[in-house]
Amino acid sequence: MMGTVYQAIPDFADHLEHELGTWQDKWGSLYYAVERCQAPFWQQNIWLEPFRLEFDSISQAAAALRDIQRNWAPVLHTQFRRAALIEGQLPPISRKPRPFPWQVPEVPIGAWSLLDAHTLIASPRCSSPFPAGIIEFEEDKFGPPSRAYLKLWEALVRCGKWPQSGEKCLDAGASPGGWTWALARLGAEVTAVDRAPLEDRILAMPGVTALKHDAFTLAPEDIGPMDWVFSDVICYPPRLYEWIQKWLASGLCQNFVCTIKMQGEADYETTRAFASVPGSVVTHLYHNKHELTWYRLNRASK
Ligand SMILES: C[S@@+](CC[C@H](N)C(=O)[O-])C[C@H]1O[C@@H](n2cnc3c(N)ncnc32)[C@H](O)[C@@H]1O
């Protein structure tokens, strides 16, 4: 089977279709394209080495997967009972919520599906390090004032790197304080900028300094060197891009994690501009809504 399988994000299949343009087959949330296109941003997982297998028995299908590797995640749209029988003959994969921080094990997680009772498609290599692109965390229901910290945790787990104790972090668009809470818990020194106030108990956390200001009218030189710049500001993507360009040009920070929030229509042009920053990744996290996450790290430092 030549080509690639793209797994759509629930609610945003139209964005994937826009990016793909054409495809040869569609099975549930899976789009099969013979021509490998420039990797789309709006996908939950890309199946990089898909193959098709005609099989007679459950045990034959399970053995074929097991012979390749240990870890396989199903992505199903039909044949649920038959798939459950195959899954029962595969080594279990853990779907338990993860703590944060969590280092993703470097083992491949494949994906598979059934097209009918005797046809399986699968890929041992996928773009996401999580089973079927899904990660859940052990949530803190009391500490953070919003659930926005989950996408920051996911981004940092994807980066394989997070702020160390004492590192200086700028958190733009910080209110009510979910990201600041997550960063302060790591022991970072957080400058939290927002036009709206943060919750008092977040302001009281050690290492947190709040600045009530428009983040974009603060130049990097006004703030000074930072180990990390974060942004979860609600704004049109070009506004964020312009501000980030200033930070990149200033050389005052090497690590960036920003949410690109779509206002109405998805902004593919600015997304591509972010992706073209050398060393960047733009992806849709499992915890993202109508938004993408851009990160760019200094890989040389811990
Ligand atoms: C999605 S919320 C941030 C949630 C936050 N990251 C958390 O974890 O709780 C977006 C924030 O962007 C702020 N915002 C919008 N425009 C801004 C600007 N120009 N400068 C600073 N903050 C801005 C809003 O006040 C809002 O609090």
Strand adjacency order, main sheet: 11-10-9-12-13-15-14
Report strand %. 15-25%
Order of helices and strands: EHEEEEHEHEEHEHEHEHEHEHEE
Helix count? Answer: 9
Bound molecules: S-adenosylmethionine
Spatial gap, N to C terminus = 40 Å
Could you explain how this protein is built, in words?
With 302 residues, the protein is of the alpha/beta class. The protein contains nine helices and 15 strands. The strands form three sheets. It has a seven-stranded mixed beta sheet, sandwiched between helices. Helix 2 (58-68) packs across helix 3. The two termini are 40 Å apart. The model has no long low-confidence stretch (mean pLDDT 97). S-adenosylmethionine binds next to helix 5 and strand 10.
Lay out the secondary structure.
Blueprint: E1 4-7, H1 13-20, E2 25-27, E3 30-33, E4 45-47, E5 51-54, H2 58-68, E6 72-74, H3 80-88, E7 110-116, E8 119-123, H4 149-159, E9 168-172, H5 178-185, E10 189-194, H6 200-203, E11 208-212, H7 220-223, E12 228-231, H8 237-250, E13 255-261, H9 268-275, E14 280-283, E15 291-296
Parallel strand pairs: 6-7, 9-10, 9-12, 10-11, 12-13
Antiparallel strand pairs: 1-3, 1-4, 2-3, 5-8, 7-8, 13-15, 14-15
Bound molecules: S-adenosylmethionine.
S-adenosylmethionine binds next to helix 5 and strand 10.
